[in-house]
Amino acid sequence: MPPRPPAELGAPVSEIETPALVIDLDLFERNLATMADAVGGSGVRLRPHAKAHKCPDIALRQMASGAIGVCCQKVSEAEVFVAAGIPDVLLTNEVADPRKLRRLADLSRTARIGLCVDGPAHVARLAQARAGHEGRLDILIEIDVGQGRCGMPVGPQLVDLARAIDAVPGLSFAGLQAYQGKAQHLRAPQDRRTAIGHAVERARIAKSMLEGTGIACPIVTGAGTGTFALEMTSGIYTELQPGSYALMDADYARNAFDGPVFAHALTLHATVISTAVPGQAVLDVGYKGAAVDSGLPVPVSPATEVLGMSDEHTVLRQPERAPLAVGDRVILLPGHVDPTVNLHDWFVGVRDGRVETLWPITARGAGL
Question: Which of 27, 137, 291, 312 has its CA 20 to 30 A from that of 212?
Fold first, then answer.
């Protein structure tokens, strides 16, 4: 049984049950248009990362705004988006479980599916898991361009791995995954330029190394909301993977931007449930509704300070000029959009003060 939505269509914003993730549809649509305008005419393809929203309704709107497909991080996410009609999905991750690899093979019969590897062990597992399965998988080699997580170093072994991929029936070497995630939240534009300059050079060397041995490298993909304009103009990247731009969060608000600026379309609405302690107001949302890995949520209406959080509560400092009362609504910016979205079942889309749409977050959860 699907969870009950926190609002009814046409209801005023004041009647949304909290805690709830609320999307300002005007700002959301402006963000999609801003990205489309920025990328349009560049010759570089837009493949938004759907782990930021986990919502097919948003993915379909991104496709309508010019995206060629989406990125996912888990097989379960890919299954949700393919079922919703997304024709082209790239898993920007390595997968080791043979059952998951077989599920990807099944998906590839109805959609274009890409997957990352960063060593021969992945190719061997893919060869074993795909035996007897139809469909074809596009395989990208993930290279380490500064993230220091997954990704093989740039060197001659890239050539051997690309050849090993093409030797497996049903697999096709498609290019390079070159994502520099640590650069996305470097606050100063110059620091981001320096980090992406290094990533571009690593990707350039890797591509040249492959092509120098006669191996085509049609795709070089990566980038995020904080740096996509740099990869776009690099002359090396062919695809961009920004995710947060559609919704945004408080962590991105700390960046200084010298390019396109995206609005904070997503907010977290909460209700004051207690003012028993002088100087404090307690909200009906805590760690189970707001991720804090990138900092605490930021109250924007009213503007005040988070004093602390627990599983189901957030404690605010009472604003001096207009103290909050039980039943008052508070609007917060999530600290980090991706894991906060993963804690909710619905987006509530609002326009002109009323609920216009309800979008299920179908791919939420830890996933498989």
Answer: 137
